[in-house]
Amino acid sequence: MNRAPVQPELLIWARERAGMASADLAHRFPRIGEWEAGEVAPTLKQLQSFANAVHVPIGYLFLPKPPEEALPIPDFRTMDGAGVQRPSPDLLDVIYSCQERQGWYREYARAHRLPDLGFVGSASTDDAPDTVAATIAATLGVDVAARAACRNWEEARRQMIAQAEEAGVLVMVSGVVLSNNNRKLDPGEFRGFALADTRAPLVFINGADSKSAQMFTLAHELAHLWLGATAVSDAGAAPVPNARREEVWCNAVAAELLVPLAAIESDLTTDEDLPGLTARLTRKYKVSTLVILRRLLDAEWLSRDEFARAWAAERARLRQLAERSASDGGNFYYTTLTRVSRRFARALVESTLEGQTLYRDAYRMLGSHNAAIFERPTQ
């Protein structure tokens, strides 16, 4: 029996990279403890199965030592004021797939002579966030009253995504890697990222996050596009010590875009208690309660101490809520368009049906081999 010449430390690195313990894999690989101890080596077939289980290219396992893996785009995330060190294979694979889609769409846009989008890179962190938020709202047609008329967060999110795509942004929303429902994305690792490009600007939103949180992430990543800044983010309304200037600025733009200060000030009353006010404004603006609390602080309706207590209490309440049911299932057709961007899917289907793109490549970029996407219009 031929054994694979693999270093035990590579096996340990690959398992830890995937966030797994030995016990998580023991049912599939009963001798994994012996492999990692160097007492016996896996066969090549076993090594291939192991590589698939931990989502690592098998070639990595034949290296003399673990590779230094860095994100292929700037990392603006922070945890306790420090950068996040090791990206998960799920995050890496999502970024790589989005970069491939963006590259394809960039060439498509060039071949079809689509105009450059002047708003990408049109702002700087020296610009006032409220001015840039007003520009984004005007460019996309974002309107507070129209969002307030939406029945729920899902409808409001769809409306804003459609507005961004109409302006030329590829918006991709998924809670899993490609179409693999066994590889769920962790909102605790990242909430979204932006890939800035004047022909193919792209925003990815972690669909495993709550709908209300996704609204803020979308607004935050749009601000990144206006900066012309490619980056992965953990966007949130909370004041974060030692946060990067770009993230503070993008958060300010996102908050003003979704909940304009002038609008919320006109909504405030002195005789309403905080829970009632928060619930009412959350329903109107279709954002999370945390965003509303931050805007109440900005409007000086809450003091710093009141905000800190309310924020901590709300975070605790949200943590206690039962996990919502997964939303990435359901209708295959709509789910696919959401995951890869309706604008991107329309261009890819058109190119494939015209014979300009191979079906093999189209299926890979769609993350699915279901032919239904080619049998229905993507308008």
Automatic annotation (TrEMBL):
Sample GO molecular function, one term: DNA binding
Keyword rRNA-binding: no
Domain of life: Bacteria
Pfam families noted in UniProt: Peptidase_M78
Domain HTH cro/C1-type: 32-61
Cited Gene3D superfamilies: 1.10.10.2910, lambda repressor-like DNA-binding domains (1.10.260.40)
Keywords (A to Z) from UniProt: DNA-binding
SUPFAM superfamilies: lambda repressor-like DNA-binding domains
Family: Belongs to the short-chain fatty acyl-CoA assimilation regulator (ScfR) family.
Protein name: DNA-binding protein
Lineage, highest ranks first: Bacteria, Pseudomonadati, Pseudomonadota, Gammaproteobacteria, Salinisphaerales
